[in-house]
Design goal:
The chain has about 300 residues and is an alpha/beta fold. The protein has ten helices and eight strands. It has one domain (about 75-305): 3-Layer(aba) Sandwich (Rossmann fold). It has an eight-stranded mixed beta sheet with strand order 1-2-4-3-5-6-7-8, with helices on both faces. α4 packs parallel to α10 (about 290-305) and α5 (about 165-190) crosses α6. Bound molecules: 3-(4-hydroxy-3-methoxyphenyl)-2-propenoic acid.
């Protein structure tokens, strides 16, 4: 792939499916196409093949889910923690809900970003705190702390240069998350610290991380979401070798992807395995691409289920 500037590359990566889906077809030519992949696509994106049950099980949210309404607002802050595994101070964003008080303890949802993102990406793509403020005002979600860390566990954790070169740092984040981020949050905030009150969800690379780390640590996270999960997702049988044991621990396993996203096959493989093993999960294939609308919409639905009976 020809490397371009960071913004151009990041835009191409995070919205590749969308850009592709909206690109008009090329003029007719008598030459055979050499590949079904979009020109300049990252590896892993393939032509979408839909199965019969690849359907939208949750409706399109109203257009104003992230509107800044006159409702009680939570607080968003950027904080730093010491990463034992990386050996640096690293940034993360934390949302605490309206009326947050140390007299109560709150469940914690961790949100992981994509390959071109950082600790600010979820906020830029979806304003999770605003979504939650609005859901709380409508009694459709429970108060929770939302943590948006940086999933690239390396000394320079900025999304610079060839962002694909940092894929190993996304795998290394498992140790940082479990060994530094979660203990930091549990120590600094009024958090419930059992698996039944901890969620892990992410978009694309962060979706793969959430499935990889969450399903192998069901003693730490019982609510898991993979939105448009990327090729860093482990093969399904490795994600959940003991499906029977996992069934009683998982409170929610959410898999979603747009039907215009060339990474759909990753989620389809996980869905097929879970279905074969009888592991309950949400399967939501809507009509979006590899884009922020997909992630905002699915987060909004996920927030209405997480930490609820
Ligand atoms: C890949 C294609 C896409 C890949 C990662 C991605 C690690 C991630 C995309 C994103 O996070 O938006 O081949 O390999």
């Amino acid at each position: 792939m020809k490397l371009t500037t960071l913004p151009a590359l990041a835009a191409m990566v995070c919205c590749l499916g969308g850009a592709h889906a909206q690109t008009p077809p090329p003029p007719p030519t008598d030459k055979k196409p050499v590949s079904s992949e979009p020109k300049g696509a990252a590896p892993g994106f393939t032509a979408v093949k839909l199965n019969a049950d690849d359907v939208q099980n949750f409706p399109e949210p109203p257009a104003d889910i992230a509107a800044n309404r006159e409702v009680p607002h939570g607080k968003l802050e950027m904080v730093e923690y010491e990463s034992k595994s990386v050996g640096t101070k690293r940034k993360l964003q934390v949302y605490t809900p309206p009326g947050y008080t140390t007299d109560k303890k709150y469940p914690v949802l961790y949100l992981l970003h994509g390959i071109g993102g950082d600790e600010t990406e979820w906020q830029r793509f979806a304003t999770p705190g605003t979504l939650l403020d609005n859901l709380l005002a409508a009694s459709k979600a429970v108060p929770m702390i939302i943590v948006m860390p940086n999933g690239r566990a390396q000394k320079n954790d900025r999304a610079e240069g060839n962002v694909f070169a940092s894929a190993p740092a996304f795998a290394a984040f498992e140790e940082d998350l479990l060994g530094s981020v979660v203990p930091f949050i549990d120590g600094k905030y009024s958090a419930l610290t059992d698996a039944d009150h901890r969620g892990l969800a992410g978009l694309s690379m962060g979706g793969g991380q959430s499935l990889n780390f969450g399903l192998s640590h069901l003693d730490r996270f019982a609510w898991i979401g993979g939105f448009s999960s990327a090729p860093n997702t482990k093969p399904a049988a490795k994600l959940l070798p003991d499906a029977a044991a996992a069934k009683s621990k998982i409170k929610l396993l959410w898999l979603s992807c747009g039907n215009k996203d060339g990474l759909l096959h990753i989620s389809q493989d996980v869905h097929a395995y879970l279905k074969e093993k009888g592991v309950a999960h949400v399967w939501n294939v809507d009509s979006h691409a590899h884009d922020p609308t997909e992630w905002k919409n699915n987060l909004w639905h996920f927030m209405q289920k997480v930490f609820q009976p």
